[in-house]
Amino acid sequence: MHACDHAAGSALAASPRIFENPLLDRMSRVHHFVPLVIYLPPLGVLLWTSARTLQGGSVAIAVLAGYLGWTLVEYLGHRFLFHFRPRGSLSARIHFLVHGVHHDHPNDRLRLVMPPLMSLPIMAAAFGAIFLICGATISLPVFAGFLIGYLLYDLLHFHVHHAEPRTAMGRFLRNRHMHHHFRDDASWFGVSAPWWDELLGTSPPRRSEVRK
Predict the structure, then answer these.
(1) What 8-state DSSP symbol labels residue 205?
(2) Phi/psi zone of residue 135: left (φ > 0), alpha (ψ -120 to 50 degrees), beta?
């Protein structure tokens, strides 16, 4: 490998310190299986409880609705929260902590899934909103679908950065995400849900797709 290529690859995979506090900095790095350890047990409880209180068809529809809700949250959050344009040093610092560090070092294996410090408040807020909208009974399978969507997103995000997809769909999703990282970060915000980019006009012209 050429020295310049090696240096560039090292920079992309670097895992810089982002907090002065050593505990906070350590908690900003997460193994990609951590979300499964945290969220699979409550997901199982939600699905089991839903199956005991609702008919199978109702559970399936509610889970699908929750999953689709996650995909929209993923798209809007990535587009408007993760890619807001900072104005001033404080907002620039917030932007770097939330998402900028990932674009500077996209191959950092320990900063590819959301750390619990970030995901737990999001999930708590999502459950509260779903509970208020859907009520106590339906909110359980809807939130289960939301969790399924989140876990698929986190694992897929890791996969497109650190695996060689073997299917046409896997290559398609990887090419889209690499385009977002290395050609145009104002397009293709839906990591696991490409349809939102098509529906909401954030897909680039087909001729500019990354092909690998």
Answers:
(1) P
(2) left
6, two tokens: 């090696």
Buried-state track 97-125, b at ≥16 Cβ within 10 A, e below 16: eebbbbeebbbbeebbbbbbeebeeebee
Average pLDDT over residues 208-212: 47
CA atoms within 13 A on the CB side of 101: 21
pTM above 0.85, yes or no: yes
The residues, any chain, with a CB within 8 Å of residue 83's CB and separated by 6 or more, are 99, 185, 186, 189
Q: Say how many residues make up the chain.
A: 212
**pLDDT tens-digit readout, 119-156:** 999 999 999 999 999 999 999 999 999 999 999 999 99
pLDDT tens, position by position, 157-203: 999 988 888 889 989 999 999 999 999 888 999 999 999 999 999 99
Rounded Cα–Cα distance for residues 210 and 212 (Å):
7
Give the 3-state secondary structure of residue 91.
helix
What's the angle, vertex CA 43, arms to CA 40 and CA 49, rounded to 5?
145
